[in-house]
Amino acid sequence: MSLRPFQYLEPDSLEEAASLLSKDGARALAGGSDLLSEMKEGVIAPQALVSLAGLEDLRGVEATSDGVRIGAMSSLASLAANTELQQRYRVLTEAAAGIATPQIRNVGTLGGNLCQRPRCFYYRSPHTLCLKKGGDSCLALPGNSKYLCIIGGERCYIVHPSDMAVALVALDADVELCGPAGRRNIPLNEFFTGPGSNIRAENALQHGEVVASVSLPLLPEGTNSTYLKAREREAGDFALVSVAAVVAVANGRITWTRIVLGGVAPYPFRATTAEEYLMGAATVDVDTVAAEAGRRAIAGATPLRDNAYKVDLAANLVKLAIISLLSGDDVEWPKS
Ligand SMILES: Cc1cc2nc3c(=O)[nH]c(=O)nc-3n(C[C@H](O)[C@H](O)[C@H](O)COP(=O)(O)OP(=O)(O)OC[C@H]3O[C@@H](n4cnc5c(N)ncnc54)[C@H](O)[C@@H]3O)c2cc1C
Questions:
Q1: Domains in the chain, ordered, with CATH?
Q2: Is 24 exposed, middle or buried (0-12, 13-18, 19+ CB in 10 A)?
Q3: CA of 255 relative to ligand 1 center, distance in Å
Q4: What's the gap in Å between 114 CA and the centre of ligand 1?
Q5: For 163-201, what is each residue's pLDDT tens digit?
Q6: How does residue 291 score in pLDDT terms, banded at 50, 70 and 90?
Q7: What is the value of pTM for the model shown?
């Protein structure tokens, strides 16, 4: 498949980038590891690529009075290796370290990871016109649904591919967006949208907007966190199911928690039923508490023909994550 000609633009400021991106057919280019494959595979044909590489505003990890701000152009490798983040937000650095391969983590950026497009075969094939590309039906449903969602599907059944999204939602992160109308901050949990809101997009980015940064709040005393990811291949593979678990404990009880699942829904799925169950739970009979939280985390799932395996996988990953956090032991988790 040959590439169609396109313009390559290098803005000097976020404002200029937003203005260039407001033009029809323009797309933001970060590391290019997803965007350029979509172009080479003939899935999309933008008329202009607006490089974000020269924008200093989008770089760096900086401690703030109320947490940490991470620029959208930070590479995944730099985040995985950041010792400050490793100590305070382990779930995030574990998620980053488990993404793809070293080469992709070196070029892939936080913003690109959050805004990457779905991996559904039927979306990625240039030969099929699925709902996301303007077609009138989901071709995956009668085809292969092994990798699709078990929660939140509505005409389209993709899963959100980003591991960073799952970890960041579990950290109650906010995202800063910059566009032609200026800057705005929203909770990352509200940034990701399901097919019911706009079947052709996976997030709330408006025309011309870019992700500028992500902010993490300070976490309560006694917080520990982890990211567990089950995949088919050990190297360079997306999650079949993943869990980001964050738990704060004081005086033998859970005082704060977030349980977020990846690979099960078109967005990072916050398992609030499990969170409610865990809040206030005593940390004595850890196995029982963890198993019940796992069961509740996925209780509302409605699997498709080929993906009922995700229900047990998700329940078990949640259980393992909680056992690991409450016992302080690392766990062996299933790789397939
Ligand atoms: C073999 C392989 C395995 C992978 N495995 C995993 C995995 O296990 N887990 C996982 O999470 N990911 C995985 N990925 C995806 C990979 O992490 C992404 O390709 C990468 O993070 C995208 O970042 P980028 O900077 O290269 O983005 P680009 O390719 O430049 O952009 C991706 C998309 O985001 C948009 N975009 C980029 N930056 C911004 C911004 N700041 N604001 C608004 N829009 C923006 C672009 O327009 C484009 O649509 C895998 C990819 C490959 C090829």
A1: 56-115+158-217 (3.30.465.10), 223-327 (3.30.390.50)
A2: exposed
A3: 35
A4: 7
A5: 999 999 999 999 999 999 999 999 999 999 999 999 999
A6: very high
A7: 0.97
